[in-house]
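Dear colleague,

Following up on yesterday's call, I've attached the two folding results inline so they're easy to grep. Please treat them as preliminary; we haven't cross-checked anything against experimental data yet. The first protein's sequence and structure tokens come first.
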Amino acid sequence: NTDMTTKADIFSLGVLMHEYCTGERPRVKNMAPGDIYLGDAVNADEEIVLNEEVIGPSLANIIKRTLKKLS
């Protein structure tokens, strides 16, 4: 499905933007890195934590929009 491919690409872009700016991937609240795949966490409505101190509120807002549920 082309729509899902596009959504997955946008999700990946959000992860890459966060990692590029902070040096780390977004993480899932109350979980160690690697405990759960980030995409699965988003689809399970887990809270994703961004390093907003580094990226600032404007970029954090953009990244949060890219990391929305892929349904």
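Below is the second protein, in the same order (sequence, then structure):
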Amino acid sequence: LKLICLTATSLRELKSDGIFYRKDYKTNPSKVEYGLTKLGLKLKIVLDDLVKFHELYKPQFTACSTNDANS
């Protein structure tokens, strides 16, 4: 599953909703990993379809910018 341009706020919200987990490896430089929880896996079919949609219409989407990351 590819994640498409999620802000830190979005990831925190999805984590608090129980969709994603966050694993902090407590390394320097820092390394974290996000993944789907059991609940998130139930959404995998929908998420896969969203990825397919994005791939199909990719030319119409703009890449993530630094402004997106800060919103």
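For the second protein, one point worth flagging: The mean pLDDT is 81.

Best wishes,
A.L.
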